[in-house]
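User: C-alpha cells for this complex, please. No commentary.
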Amino acid sequence: MAFHSVAEILELAKLEDIPFWEVVLRSDMEERQVTREESMAKMLITWQAMRDAADAYTGTRRSVSGLVGGDGMRMRQYQLRGKAIAGGYVGEVIAEALSMAESNACMRRIVAAPTAGACGVLPAVLLPLQKDKDLTQRQILEAFYVASGVGMVIAHNACISGASGGCQAEIGTASAMAAAALVSLKGGSDKMIAQAVAIALSNLMGLVCDPVAGLVEVPCVKRNVIGAMNAISAADMALAGIECVVPVDEVIEAMGEVGRSMPVQFRETALGGLANTPTGRAVRDRMQEHQEWK
Amino acid sequence: MNLFDILGPIMIGPSSSHTAGAARIGNMARTLLGEIPVQAKIHLHGSFAQTGSGHGTDRALVGGLLGMKPDDLRIPFAFEEAEKDGLQFSIDTIELREAHPNTAVIELIGENGARLEMQACSIGGGAIEVHKINGIDVLFTGAFNTLVIHNHDEYGTLAAVTTILSQLHINVANMSLNRAKRGGDALMVLETDQHIKPSQVEFLRDLPGILSLTYYDKEDEEYGFSLRR
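Assistant:
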C-alpha cells in the first residue's frame, strides 16, 4: 500500500511538483510493476466497461427477488418530459445512478467502485458530464486515478464495505471518490480535492447498512442516488472555496471509528433498520419460501 | 490491495462476495478437478444458504463450474448453460462448524471419473480462500499460480518438486503440506510467483510418489473479456 493518508498524496504532489493523479498513477506502476501505458490501458478498459454497462441498461430486467428494476428508465422518461425539479445534469445523474445500481441488482456486468453495491455513484456523475462538456478521455482517466487514490486511503484507514462499516463506508466512500473525481475534472486544486472528500464523507457519516432480505436492492439502489447528489454538492462547495473544518484524514479516521462502533444489526446483517420493518421482514419470508432450492 | 481492487473488479452483480467470489469458487473447483465436471453437488453454508438465491450465488457457482469468470455475461443463465453443457447439479444447504459465513462445499465428478470435494469461502471483494480438499485442510486463495499435489506421505517428494521448480526459476511464494495420517495420502500446495507452462506441469506430474497434480493459473487479465459483448 503506497499511501497512508490524503495528506501524504498532497505532500508527494508538492514535493515532486506533479498533479494528484500522477502521484496515484506512479504508485500503481510501482505496486503492480507495470509501465505507465499498461496502467493507463487498464484504466481505459475500466472506463469502457462502465460505459458498456450504461449502454446495456434497458430498464426491462428485474432482480431475482423482483424488488427492483425499471426505475432508471422511469426517471429518464420523467427527466425527458422536462418537468423535473432537478433538471439538466443533475436529473441525468439521478437516472444514471439508478440505472447502474439496478443493473448490478439485476445481474448485469458492472464495475465495482469501490463495491458492487455502490457501483452507480462514480459513473453517474461522470457519464453525463462526458456527454455535455466534451471532456477529453485523458481528463476522465486522470479523474479516475484521483478517485481511486482517495478510495485506497479510505480502505486503508477506515473501511469500504457495508459489513465492516455500514453504508457510510460503502456509499460514503463512493461519494467521496466521485466528489474528488469531479473536482479534478473541473480543474480544482489538490487542496480542493481533499476538501471535497472531507465534506462528502462528513455528510454521509453514520449511514447504516440495512438491506431488505439481505439483498443489494432496497435501499441500496436509491442510496446510490444520494451518494451521487452528495458528491456533486461536496465538489461544488470545495470548488467554491468552502472548507471542511475537520481535515480530511481526521474525517476518514472518524468514519472508521463510527463504523467499528456501529451495532452489528446495521452492518449488512439485515437485522435492523429497513430490513427489520414489517414490510422488510415480509419480503424476507417471501424470498425464503420461494427459494428454488431449500 | 491495488488500485483496481478499488476501481474494480469488472463483474456480474449484485455482490462481490456472493456473486463474483462464488464464480471464482466454482472455477477453482473445476480447475482442481482437472477435467470437465459432469456432476456437481453444491452445499451452501451461512449467508450463502440464506441469501444465495437472491444474490445469484447459486448461478455464479454453477457458472464457475462451467468455466465462467466473474465478468461472464452468461452467469445469470448458468442453469440453462449447465443443461446445454451436460452438467448435472444439485444445490442444498449445510450447517458447518466454525466455517466462514460465505462457505460452499462442492462435490464434483468429472467426465473421466475424477472426484473432488472442496470447501471454500468468499471473504469479500471477490477474494476467495480454499479451506479443504478431499477432507484435508489447506489454505490458499488463487491470488497466485497454485500447484495442488496429492502425493504418498513419504520422504523426498517435496524435495523433488521444489528442486524442479528451482531449476525452472520458479519462485515459491507460499506453501503447505498436510496429511490425513502418517504413511497415507498427503496434499501439497505451492503458490508460485511465476506461471508454470503446461509441459512443465506434465513433467512434475510424472515424478515418483505423486498421485495426482492440478495447476491453477491465476487470472492475469480477467478484464480482457470485458470488452466483448
